[in-house]
Specification:
The protein is α+β, with helices and mostly antiparallel strands and 83 residues long. Helix content is 14%, strand content 33%. The protein is flat, with a radius of gyration of 16 Å.
Length: 83
């Protein structure tokens, strides 16, 4: 990991902890979810830090769209101001 456990966050000085997170990215009109991604996460602001090797792996997974494990339906709602 880029950051060691108990290291301060660069944004808020909170404490970073190793976690497994869900990453959601869009590719064109597709939304891709990657589960169980190792990251260091700030306990105050939630900022995530990823190791360079983890980022390369995620980019590779995003390029291989046919290798995804499953497909789910997602409801999409357009934002509008509610009075």
């Amino acid at each position: 990991m880029k950051k060691a456990a108990k290291e301060p966050c660069d944004f808020c000085d909170g404490t970073l902890h190793p976690r497994r997170v869900r990453v959601v990215r869009s590719r064109g009109r597709k939304l891709i979810v990657i589960d169980d991604v190792p990251a260091m996460v700030c306990d105050q602001c939630g900022m995530r830090y990823y190791d360079a090797a983890v980022v390369r792996s995620m980019e590779s997974l995003l390029r291989r769209s046919r290798s995804h494990k499953r497909t789910i339906k997602v409801t999409v709602t357009k934002f509008e101001v509610v009075a």
